[in-house]
Amino acid sequence: VGFSFCSCPNINLESSTCPLLCLSTPESETSQHREKLRALVVMAGLAISPPLSLTFSSRTRNAKPTSYLSHNQRNLTRRIVSALPSPYGDSLKAGLSSNVSGNKDPRSIAPRFGVIEAKKGNPPVMPAVMTPGGPLDLSSVLFRNRIIFIGQPINAQVAQRVISQLVTLASIDDKSDILIYLNCPGGSTYSVLAIYDCMSWIKPKVGTVAFGVAASQGALLLAGGEKGMRYAMPNTRVMIHQPQTGCGGHVEDVRRQVNEAIEARQKIDRMYAAFTGQTLETVQQYTERDRFLSASEALEFGLIDGLLETEY
Fold it and tell me: CDD domains, per this entry (predicted)?
């Protein structure tokens, strides 16, 4: 090895001892020369060593999990994600394009992953179906046909979605009817009453159609539709009863909660009497305990106005 680039006059390249390997130098060498030799060792080591891969770790942050999906699987995942409806609305800008491809820029798809990893309790996202023209967003199709679908217990989030759809449809066209399809086991009394108030307030007539089950507050919403526009499938089961509640806390708080529950029951019984034409005493007898009704019995009682005929 030649070190002609070194300006040190004391380096003897003919000696048997290499100063770069053992850093042994003559006694007369100054400390400045030794520092130069050490610098040469470091420079030579960096020049001949392979590139290093540096990894920095932290105890306060979790590393991003590695994806082991193949290229085709990743594309398939992107197609599925792209087929889900946008959480920001169903307009042409925020909705889905009919030309969905697995080769989309990942940056345009990444924000949608946050929608899939929703927190518990969020209303389920209505799926899309594949058609020859691409994925078809069911919620957009129903919305364009002025149909609102409720297929889960009614809580504050479901009520917010339904109310926003009712108000939007009324602002678009206040003369065309709206239909609410129900397959609902019940829900919060406050949330159902909020939906009913909105149904009564907007100008369009709001009809209701039940299939599967309309129980508890779901039955109240079914009966609260526009008179003459309340229907049920022949195999629908309807259940009405008094409201359920749970009380806890201080004695005075429990007393007030019980009074609130009693007032809610009286209000609901009066509403059933107005919806069905039955006397308040008859309604109270029906709602004293869980009362299950067939679609025909619900029609006879006055909860609905007609049956939608099917083959069976």
Answer: S14_ClpP_2 (cd07017)
Give the C-alpha separation, 157 to 148, whole Å. 15
Q: Give the CA distances from residue 232 to residues 49, 73, 170, 301, in Å, rounded to whole numbers and listed in that order.
A: 79, 43, 24, 13
Q: Which of 163, 254, 230, 240 has its CA nearest to residue 202? A: 163
Question: What structural domains and CATH numbers belong to the chain?
Answer: 1-49 (no CATH), 84-131 (no CATH), 146-307 (3.90.226.10)
Question: Which residue stretches of the chain have pLDDT < 50?
Answer: 1-7, 10, 13-25, 27, 50-123
Selecting among 33, 71, 241, 250, the annotated active-site residue is 241
DSSP code of 130? E
User: Which amino acid makes up residue 258?
Assistant: V
Q: What is the DSSP string of 248-299?
A: -SSHHHHHHHHHHHHHHHHHHHHHHHHHH---HHHHHHHHSS-EEEEHHHHH
In this prediction, residue 134 carries a pLDDT of: 66
Of 199, 192, 229, 197, nearest in space to 214 by CA: 192
**Residue 41: what pLDDT?**
56
Compute how many other C-beta atoms are within 10 angstroms of the C-beta atom of residue 115.
15
Q: Which amino acid, one-letter code, is at 301? A: F
Q: Left (φ > 0), alpha (ψ -120 to 50) or beta: where does 89 sit?
A: left
Burial 213-222 (b: 16+ CB within 10 A, else e): bbbbbbbbbb
**What confidence score (pLDDT) does residue 96 get?**
30
Strand 291-294 and strand 237-240: pairing? antiparallel
Q: What is the pLDDT of residue 17?
A: 47
- How far is 127 from 136, CA to CA, in rounded Å? 9
Residue with the two structure tokens 């149904």? 199
Note if 241 is an active site residue: yes
DSSP H helix total and E strand total for the chain: 12, 9
